[in-house]
Automatic annotation (TrEMBL):
Phylogenetic placement of the source organism: Bacteria, Bacillati, Actinomycetota, Actinomycetes, Mycobacteriales
Name by which UniProt lists this protein: Transcriptional regulator
Keywords: DNA-binding, Transcription, Transcription regulation
Residue ranges occupied by any HTH lacI-type domain in the UniProt entry: 2-57
Protein biosynthesis listed as a keyword: no
Superkingdom of this protein's organism: Bacteria
Any GO MF annotation of the entry: transcription cis-regulatory region binding
Classification via PANTHER family: LACI-RELATED TRANSCRIPTIONAL REPRESSOR, TRANSCRIPTIONAL REGULATORY PROTEIN
Species of the source: Mycolicibacterium cosmeticum
Family annotation (Pfam families): LacI, Peripla_BP_3
Amino acid sequence: MVTMKDVAKAAGVSQASVSYAYSGSPRVSETQRHHIFAVAAELGYTGPNIAGSFLRSGRIGAVGVLVPGPLANAVEDPSTALLLKGIVEVGELADVALTLLPVARPDAPEPTARPATPAVLRGLVDGVVMHCLPNDHEVVQAIRSRGLPAVAIDSPRLPHLPYVTADHRQGGTDQMNHVLTQGHRRIAVLTDRIGGRHFPGCRSLAQVPMVAETYLAERFTGYRDALLAHAVDAAAVTVIEAPDIDMASGMAAAAELIACARPTAVVTTSDVHAAAVLKVLRGLGIAVPREVSVIGFDDAPIADLLGLTTIRQPLEDKGRTAAQMLLDVIAGHQRRRSVKPVELVVRNTTGPVVG
């Protein structure tokens, strides 16, 4: 039986390099990766079988991905889909079951209050990737107390918990700075939930309390950084929360926002919500960007289709990095954090203020 060691010897590289090639790690170049794969094919080596190593070590061979809210919303959100795509692209997870576990929000009805907790506590997974969960969520605390290998994407952010994120503060600064430099001063923000419970209605940015989830708190800090740099009072910016990241709740929030604030620019915390704003504006006969500019966040495929100005974060790369981190933690190694850069992508939905 051909082993990874045999491939390494034949390819003239270390065994670690072969492992990195199959895991998609950037530690080997594309040229070296292709060379290793070519040698492996000649020898009849099909890649590492992590499931087998799990069985030998007494592990289950399953990894959980915890997402907030109903699974239907996770499937609809293109950013979550891209994160999952990145996770499953890690070669060492090819033979491992990936279990998607919904985690109810604190204000969810009692029948679905703790759907993920039993699976985690019964030991049905060897480790978990937690995506955008509040630091104090009971599921997070259960995972921590059990000592289950875990990695966070964006949040929670807790001591000794490895995480991968994007530079959300810079992303928020870039979003707000983009519309400010185009002369907009009647600015509104359509955001995900700021706290554990949904806060309905419009309010000013100056009235927004401390944001519960770290990644969103960083974006709001970025908004305030840009406003301060342009000498614009945060009280002049209107904020509204959508209860979920989907078109229906996004459109409802957008309609209320347009009615209460009459903004010339709308900054959103996801491309889904930006798409919802565009749909509402089109229905009202309001021209974009001549009358209202709209900017999103993520640069999911929908952004390119709509010609949406947005902030690009490397979603698939975040998923791949989180998966590799989790495998390292399961193997007994510890990686502390990874912060990915963001980029402003200007398309057709933003422009100078008119009048």
